[in-house]
Write a structure and sequence with these properties.
Elements (H helix, E strand, L loop, with lengths): L1 E6 L5 E7 L2 E7 L6 E5 L1 E6 L1 E2 L2 E2 L7 H13 L2 E9 L3 H17 L3 H4 L3 E4 L23 H10 L4 E6 L6 H10 L3 E4 L6 H10 L3 E2 L16 H7 L4 E4 L8 H11 L4 E3 L12 E5 L2 E5 L5 E3 L12 H11 L3 H15 L15 E5 L7 E6 L18
Parallel strand pairs: 1-4, 5-8, 8-9, 9-10, 10-11, 11-12, 12-13, 13-14
Antiparallel strand pairs: 1-2, 2-3, 4-18, 6-7, 15-16, 16-17, 18-19
Helix pairs in contact: 2-4, 9-10
The chain binds zinc ion.
Length: about 375
């Protein structure tokens, strides 16, 4: 496949040929193509979509394929399937299900370079736990985590923990020793507990500014403490609903663009028609604007919008195209020591083609990669193989 497209970082137009998803030829050109190209997004927190849920053991391979195809449609070339708080049996079964899926379709291990365990060792306080079921939040248990990691075939690469849980600091130390990235999230930790968690190895905050009680002491509180902690990175859900513009701008400035990254935190109900649903052991509601709420409560339950929407939010805030895509494609890979695609012959990305003009909307055209979703039941028009 031959195309001309401009590189997102500098606007340089290239004549490109892709073969099997890799750049086979690369020449600068004086043409002015309307298409752009960039590394596809890597999002470390995808819960599911279209009614399919990574936290459920009953999700079929066709469901996984549908999630991957839908994510690709929104520019997400790879991501961490995210399993949230549940009983030990449920979490074990969810990871075993993922392990079976990767064994069935080995290419999916490229799309899923790891998994994110968000919970169950998080706060049980209302608001702080968000949509995590109160019944199953608990203190960290290393032996239980080892069972989860075994069920996941060692592929859990990120764990979101509340530092105030009994035993959390030792747990964070052990995870860090094993190379698992620890995130602070769904927490009501004190200043001292946050500092101790970072000393123990915590690297980032999960969706900073969300997973909080609706009302906080003015100061100190866990949002200020995480904002001011320069050793912590932070993910933000910039879908236009999870954070008001003022909070988003404040996080971007306090963390700087070097230590912040985008996650869409898309939930299993994303892409579903408005209405009431039962999922994550909660009564949830999809609103007409796509928001997913805990029914009868002012709390969002994951996002109904994907990473491309978050990039558009950052562009609206005045970030450059280069900066906005960096936070979704480059920064996320850097945090997990994953290779960042570079423009050179042989590089397999995954690459993303998109349309954009200054002041306009960013719109994904397609993902170019070597991985085929590879199961029946998938709209073949959503997949482009070269
Ligand atoms: Zn969360």
């Amino acid at each position: 496949m031959r195309i001309s497209a401009k590189y997102f970082a500098n606007g340089q137009p290239y004549a490109l040929q892709f073969e099997q998803g890799r750049i086979a030829e690369l020449k600068t050109t004086t043409a002015d193509p309307s298409l752009w190209f960039a590394p596809a997004f890597f999002d470390p927190q995808i819960n599911g979509c279209l009614g399919h849920n990574f936290s459920s053991a009953s999700t079929k391979p066709e469901g996984f394929a549908a999630i991957i195809a839908e994510c690709q449609r929104h520019g997400i070339g790879s991501f961490f399937p995210t399993v949230i708080t549940g009983s030990q049996e449920t979490i074990l079964a969810a990871f075993k299900n993922l392990t079976r899926a990767v064994a069935t379709v080995p290419e999916w291990s490229t799309v899923w370079p790891g998994y994110h365990l968000e919970g169950p060792y998080v706060s049980g306080a209302k608001g702080a736990r968000g949509a995590h079921p109160a019944e199953w939040v608990r203190d960290p248990d290393w032996n239980e985590f080892k069972k989860f990691q075994d069920a996941a075939a060692g592929r859990i690469r990120m764990v979101t923990v509340a530092p105030e849980r009994t035993g959390a600091l030792k747990f964070i130390e052990k995870l860090t020793t094993q190379g698992v990235v620890v995130a602070i999230g769904h927490t009501c930790a004190t200043s001292e507990q946050i500092a101790a968690a970072v000393d123990a190895g915590a690297r980032t905050s999960t969706h900073l500014g969300n997973g909080c009680p609706a009302v906080l002491p003015r100061h100190p509180n866990m949002v200020w403490d995480q904002l001011a902690e320069d050793r912590l990175w932070a993910s933000v859900i910039a879908d236009g609903y999870h954070l008001p513009t003022s909070v988003l701008k404040t996080i971007l400035r306090a963390k700087t663009l070097d230590r912040v990254f985008l996650t869409c935190d898309v939930g299993p109900l994303a892409g579903m028609s408005p209405g009431k649903y039962r999922d994550w052991d909660n009564d949830l509601e999809v609103l007409p604007d796509g928001r997913i709420m805990v029914a009868s409560a002012p709390f969002l339950a994951g996002s109904g919008h994907f990473t491309d929407t978050c990039v558009n939010t950052l562009l609206t805030l005045g970030l450059s195209l280069h900066e906005a895509i960096d936070l979704a494609s480059v920064r996320t890979r850097q945090l997990f020591d994953m290779p960042v695609p570079v423009v050179e012959v042989g590089n397999g990305g995954p690459w993303m083609l998109f349309e954009w003009s200054p002041g306009g909307i960013f719109r994904v055209d397609r993902i170019v990669d070597i991985v085929c979703v590879g199961l029946v039941g998938i709209d073949s028009e959503k997949r482009v193989n070269f």
